[in-house]
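Exercise 3.2. Students should predict the tertiary structure of the chain below and write it as structure tokens, then compare their answer with the key that follows.

Predict this chain's 3D structure.
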Amino acid sequence: MILGISCFILTVLVYFGTKTFYKSHKRVLYTPVILTPLLVIVVLAFADIPYNTYHEGTRYISNMIGPATVALAVPLYKNRHVMKKHALSILISVLTGSTVAIVSTAWAAKMLHLDLAIIDSIAPRSATTPIAVVVSGLIGGIPAITAVFVLATGVLGMVLGPVVIRFFRFKNDVSHGVLLGTSAHAVGTSKAFELSSASGSVSTVAMILTAFFTLCTAPWIVPLLL
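Answer key:
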């Protein structure tokens, strides 16, 4: 019990510490999404703390995902005029992006001659973890592998997203939001909110739509490609 509470306190302190550090060192690799899990893993490994013990002590943090998601309704409401004005563009862009993500991932994995179970596991990587894991199970993948690739996709999207935005000189909040939300789900949405409230709101919608489209299309598309 005490060890579990210690894990909870450790996670909170590390997060706020890395968040403070990131504010004064605005580099993508210093973002709390990357630094926090790395530092926590190092501490757990050094102290030889089992993952089950850590998970039990920090489950309250995991339970905050629901309220945090609901809280996204606030910026969505504030930027509803942007959503309404660009609804069709957002819908088409996200549908295209999510489909391309599934097809390109499955095709590339097939070209590398990866095992079918691995291909099924990584195909839905652009969706949020809960949806990606469900889709992976539906098409014969391994949920644990899917979760790892979803995290890797989010971090990679957060790192490369701003680079793509600068390279192609995207200056519109809608394009920023669609790019980050479609390609990097929750992690990308966090980055989008750093750009602007409107970008974050669009990214939230894009993230939700990507999850929905992936859930609907992946079970049909992936088998056709294999």
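Discussion points: The longest helix spans residues 197-225. The chain has 13 helices and no strands.
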